[in-house]
Amino acid sequence: MKNWTKNITSAAVAVAMSGSLLATSAQAGELTVYTALEEEEIASYVEAAKTAMPDVELNVLRLSTGKLGARLLAEADNPQADVIWGWAVTAMMDPQVLALLESYKAKGADVLGKEFRDPEDRWFAPIGYMGAFCVNTARLEQKNLPMPKSWADLKDPAFKGEILMPDPNSSGTGYLHVNAVLQSNGLEKGWGVLTDVDPNMAQYTSSGSKPCKAARAGEYAVGISLAFTAMKSIEDGYPLAMVFPEGGVGYELEASGLMASSDNKSDAKRFLDWTMTKEAQALYGKFKALITIPGVETSEAAAKAGLPSDISSILAPVNFAESAGRQKDIKKEWKERFGR
Amino acid sequence: MSQTLTTKQTAIGGRTFDSDKLLAVVCLIVPLIGLFLFFLYPMVIVFLRSITVEGGGYGLANYQEILASKGFWRATQHSLLMGGATTVVSVVLGYIIAHGLHRCVFPGKNLIRVAIVLPMLAPSLVQALGLIFIFGRNGLINRFFGLELEIYGFWGLLISNTLYALPQVVMIIGAALVLLDARIFEAAEVMGAKPSRQFRDLTLPGVIYAILSAAFVVFIITITDFGNAAVIGGDYSVLATEIYSQVIGQRNFNMGAVVGIMLLLPTVVSYYIERQAMKRQQNQKATNIQPYVPRFYGKRDVPMAMANYVIAAMIVLVIGVVVYASFVKLWPYNYSLTTKHYFITLAGGYSSLWVTIWISICAATLGTLAVFVLGVGLRRASAVLTQPIQVLASMPAAVPGMVLGLAYILTFNSTSTPLYLLYGSAALIAAVNFYHYHTQAFMTIMTGFRQFPSELEEAGESLGAGLGRISFNIIAPFVTPMLISIFFFLFMRSMVTLSAVVFLTTPKLSVAAVTIMRLDDAGLTSQAAAFSTAVMVVVGLALLGMKGILVLVQTHKARVKGA
Is residue A230 assigned to a domain? Predict the structure, then answer.
């Protein structure tokens, strides 16, 4: 008898415990925002946005570009987010994602050039990020290697086994680089460049930031990766140089858009409007190396790290509609040529 | 006295039989409902996605496409080879540890016990960083000896997978070794059997089920693991990398689902092989087990001690170097000490740690209870039922965390069932943590149950005890060591596991493993190491506290009994 009571009590406790673990449902005036921007900048932007919209509770979920995409699409039947904020435009242009968005012309977004917003206004991209080589100067010296300045320099057999690059099939950063090489050289010549470098590649990684992290730890001499990670590492004191390859640096736009399923569209629109305000622009100037809003200066950190003031002079001529449209074929061909 | 009276009365009333049957059915049904809701149903959805072809509709085109790709077969080959190699290495090493701990005499066993759980309570980032810091191209060994050892690839992955699998092997094999009856060994000794002979004829046959179960677990967790492969596997592509590339890289869940479903095949096959092997095995059970107290035997114990020390030292080194690095300014360039990395700059700081502890305690408590009850239910179920239930209960480990996490979104975020109430809740995170590790918990408890002498149960029955009483007064005490290790295992894994959970956290509800990932994503690797160290310390303290409570309860019980 006693045991039965014991059983029932423990079952009741278990139910109560799981009950208290249940989530509370969303309230009005709340906004759920999915983003792939960097933590540091998110903190600043959110603080400013909260001051501008004190009546709205901003709930921000940060995931890397790839994971965010997987989650968005898995949630597609009953989307949880109101806004997608600062997410790679090549991912945003995926028809599965576009289908989740609603057209909205954010206030102030019309100053953006045509290539920086969707013709149907489902997304706009005032900011972006860039690819870069992370070169470990200590290892370079130790191995007696020359400082690479372009993709062509990486052909040198001396670099054999010393270069890392993200796999475009797993990482958006990987595709960013492959696409830049292909678009700035043309397909035929571009594939040639990648083929020449392939024998020197130690690994094709699944994460976009890993090549830079491995390079800064001295595991490899060159990590083909992101400018953000390079700048952060240099700031931390690693013996790292950030190199923008001559002949075209790959870059990606960070797009925002309104989820068609949102049940708080008025606040969602206010938030999207806010991302184009002067206040937001001033913050972009602090963090971003790439700003597409005409007349906004890029960050000091970027200048210190060696970015030219006229950034467009070094960027690869990337056509995003084209790069998103053909990505499936390019990734497939890449896998056939270089898949390991 | 009153208890005996009640049972007698019910026995006379003829109700024992009925209520027993009912209880046995409940014992089977309640955990099964859990398995259906939190494992089978999500996997059915994954299966449906795997046969959903482009443009809608069902068909096998996805399977055809995958089976036709070169990369898939290469990855399959790699995965099977890696699975086999890891299984052999970690079962051998794990057996040495378990045997050393339970059946040999040497000092420092408690330290080895601590060392062996480290890989379970360390976040995956710690093991990855540790291996690279020590064996990497710019790691301690290469720099110290001026070598150019290359760790990335097969060997690095083998070491990494082995480290991860080892504690689980020790848990399962230890469950069998601890229950071997001492008296048969005493009898053997009296008859003059040498330890080597005793080992071959008594120990090994007694634990063969556990060894096979451990091998099964290692094989499937190895072929489904993505984390190690991504960090240290280099270009050694495995099936889990293929899934990542499809699901995360190309936003094509359906194709990833195909590989995820195919990963279930080796599980079913190896489960079948294990069963066949078991059929030939006669199990020896004693009615009243005397714990084995080993006596010192130099030829056995000195080499065993050495092997144990070396393995434990390796583990401590790999984890310890990361703890050390978390106090260093800039690894590997500036070794001056600092505590600055412990000031977490990420919003929220350490808060996710406390939430995670609660979630983990719930997952561990309910999980331990669920597998115990399932074990009891299976004892009374007909053979027709036990086979498929056992296969189902052993299957969850074969699902990569990423697939399970996304399957949970597809299942619990759908408004077509009331299950969506769970979405975004801590309860769902606790559930995914438990069901993700269901296989290991189930295997461990079954190892214990197999050793349980049915004579004891029969004796209890003839005295008029119902299933409920037998379970709690006879079986539970017998398998207590397993229950404790399952509880701790689930607790530790829930504290640090990332792969499935990363898809289920919300802006308001994050867990420690996700905080570590975010720190690392933000380039703050040293802070991620510091946060990981904090997690390990907190988990360690929590374990100590729980152990302390257990000891108190046990001494209290012993005192009550003695009085």
Answer: yes
Q: Identify the residue among B6, B242, B251 best suited for mutation to test binding to A, counting A beta carbons within 10 A and taking the highest.
A: B251
Beta strands in chain A (DSSP E): 30-35, 57-62, 83-88, 101-102, 124-136, 163-166, 201-205, 222-226, 240-243, 251-259, 290-291
pLDDT tens profile B282-334:
555 555 567 788 888 888 899 999 999 999 999 999 999 999 999 999 999 99
**Average pLDDT, rounded, for chain B:** 89
Residues A157 and A172 placed together within one structural domain of the fold: yes
User: Is B346 near chain A, with CB under 8 Å?
Assistant: yes
Q: Which two tokens mark A20?
A: 């208290």
Q: Which of A17, A89, A242, A328 to probe by mutation at the B interface, max B CB count within 10 Å?
A: A17
Spans of chain A below 70 pLDDT: 1-28, 300-302, 304-306, 309
Residue-by-residue DSSP string for A39-66: HHHHHHHHHHHHHH-TTSEEEEEE--HH
One domain for residues A244 and A183: yes
Whether residues B472 and A3 touch (CB distance < 8 A) is answered with yes
Would you call B413 and A205 a contact, using CB atoms and an 8 Å cutoff?
no
Enter the ipTM.
Answer: 0.89
The partner residue sitting opposite B427, judged by closest CB among A21, A69, A217, is A21
| Residue A5: inside a domain | no
Q: Does B78 touch chain A (CB under 8 A)?
A: no
Say whether residue B481 is in contact with chain A using an 8 A CB cutoff: no
Same domain, A100 and A72: yes
pLDDT value at residue B13: 44
pLDDT in tens, B220-250: 999 999 989 998 999 899 999 999 999 999 9
pLDDT of residue A267: 96
Are residues A284 and A150 located together in one domain of the fold? no
Contact with chain A for residue B154, Cβ under 8 A: no
Q: Give the residue numbers spanning the domain of A105.
A: 11-128+252-297
Pairing state of beta strands A30-35 and A57-62? parallel
Of residues B180 and B51, more confidence is placed in: B51
Cβ of A74 within 8 Å of Cβ of B523? The answer is no
What are φ and ψ of residue B58, in 5° steps?
-105, 150
- What's the structural domain count of chain A? 2
B421 shares contact with chain A (CB less than 8 Å) = yes
How is residue B212 written in tokens?
Answer: 């096979």
Question: Of A330-334, B265-269, B420-424, B502-506, where does mean pLDDT reach its minimum?
Answer: B265-269
Q: Does B3 touch chain A (CB under 8 A)?
A: yes
Contact B52/A at CB under 8 A: no
- Span B141-182, pLDDT tens digits: 999 999 888 999 999 999 999 999 999 999 999 988 887 878
Residue A91, in any domain of the structure: yes
Check: CB of residue B242 under 8 Å from CB of residue B226.
Answer: no
Ordered structural domains, chain B, with CATH: 19-41+73-335+352-562 (1.10.3720.10)
A256 and A246 assigned to the same domain: no
Residues A244 and A134 in one domain: yes
Q: Which residues of A touch B402 (CB under 8 A)?
A: 70
- Using DSSP's 3-state secondary structure scheme, residue A219 falls into coil
**pLDDT higher than 80, residue B281:** no
Report which of B560, B340, B325, B371 is spatially closest to residue B484, judged by C-alpha positions. B371
